[in-house]
Amino acid sequence: MIVMENVYKKYPNGVVAVNGIDVEIEQGEFVYVVGQSGAGKSTFIKMMYREEKPTEGKIIVNGVDITKLKNSKVPLFRRNIGVVFQDFKLLPKLTVYENVAFALEVIEESPRIIKKRVMSVLDLVNLKHKARMFPTELSGGEQQRVSIARAIVNSPSLVIADEPTGNLDPENSWEIMRVFEEINARGTTIVMATHNKEIVNEIKHRVIAIEGGTIVRDEQRGEYGYEV
Hints:
By secondary structure, the protein is α/β, with parallel strands linked by helices. The chain has helices at residues 41-46, 74-78, 96-105, 111-124, 140-152, 170-185, 197-202; strands spanning 2-10, 16-25, 30-34, 56-61, 64-65, 81-84, 158-162, 189-193, 206-211, 214-219. The strands form 2 sheets. It has a 6-stranded mixed sheet. A hairpin with a 5-residue loop joins strand 1 and strand 2 (16-25). It is found in: Cell membrane.
């Protein structure tokens, strides 16, 4: 699913965020990316969906060498990737249904297919009954579940989540993880950057630890390994 070969990322200010990373992530894996703030986690995962381009190296995602991808081809490439952010990024003037449907409308899917898929993913995240509500009428946990629904409505092969439980209380964090576990059980690859020690240690998956822009630990069924 993802291959990185000798990847570096140096920003114009001289900061080296990623420093010679080699890694492979298989189809269907669930991978936590952990490390202290400023370790390079966000840059590492942003490069997977071409939000950032590496300074050097090769990145292949789902068979596509995205380091050679023309900017005009990036939107098409991203159709098969779902991205979940810490701050939800919902459109405030659209309802829950409309926020999720938007991802399908931009690719000109038929209204019949849109309705079927949107209601199906809202059912998965337990928000079917709030389809007509607006983001401001929802709790933080509910807003994050809407953002997950939007990310998976295209049935992507890969979901990338950047601190998806970072703004949530423990109860809502576990509910978000229930959804991610369900998505992963259906065969979707998940890469999740997180500071949530309890979740990483309780729900065991592969753990990639990054320090100073390099991978210092890569363990199947690993633990968080940092004080929080």
